[in-house]
Structure formats: C-alpha cells, structure tokens
Amino acid sequence: MAARAGLVCVALLVFVLLLAQSRVEYVGGTVPALASGAGGSVELSDTRYFAFYARGKQIRVPYEHINLLEYGQKVDRRLLMAVVISPMFLLAKSRKHFLTVGYTDEDGKQQAMVFRVDKNGIRAMLVGLEARTGLKVEYQDPEARKAGKG
Hints:
CATH architecture: Roll
Order of helices and strands: HEEEEEHEEHEH
Number of strands: 8
Low-confidence stretches: 9-20, 77-86
C-alpha cells in the first residue's frame, strides 16, 4: 500500500512539473534579445525566477520584480476557410490566448513580454504565476476571465 501511494505521489509530481513548463510564443515586448515569433517554453518550477527559454536565449526575471500579469484572448472567425471550404466555418471561432508579464529590470526600468500560450497550458500558467508572484491576474474582458478561471 505504501509503495502504491509513493508511486501516485511520484506520478503527481511529474504531472505538476510538466504543467510548470509550457510551450509559448514570444509575440513582442521590450526585450531586445528576443525576436517576435520566437517559440520556446516558460518554466515556473524555479521558486525564485520566471524563466523563458527560446532557441539559444534565456530570459530570467525574479518573481519579486514582476508587477503585472494580464491575460486576454483574441477571437478570430475563420473567414478564409468559410470562403474556400464551407460556410459552416463562419460558426467556428479560433481563440488565441495571450499573457503579458510586466516587470522592472535590474536598472529599475519597466519592461514587458507578451506571450501567446497554448489553450491547454494557460490555466496552469496563470495559477502558477499568481502563486509565485503574489499578484492577481488582470483579465482584459469577461470572456478571458471565464477561460482563465475555468
């Protein structure tokens, strides 16, 4: 019985660590070292730093320097697909999930990073960031609030 409980704990820990690292795309911001569209991963498992890892680049921000967490969605109707394939695509919506992280750098200047986050990773990321920073996520609209809180 104890071995089974230990196995369950290990499986749960692996699951939490997988959730703590999410695939994202850097959309833009004030970080000159990153190009817009850079794909990478955000890691929240470190207790001191928010980390974004992109191809050959690493951005680490101490959680205590983060002063803004904002979540929003962009909803697109699939107009091109409706014209080309079927009018039924007008009924379909494509939601893109965006996370803005604002922080002060080591020189005391305000900086920001905007990420497009996979829909399957956004809730865990928002909860993790709230827990690590002590800040509440600001939602751009009621739809974003509903999607972010589940």
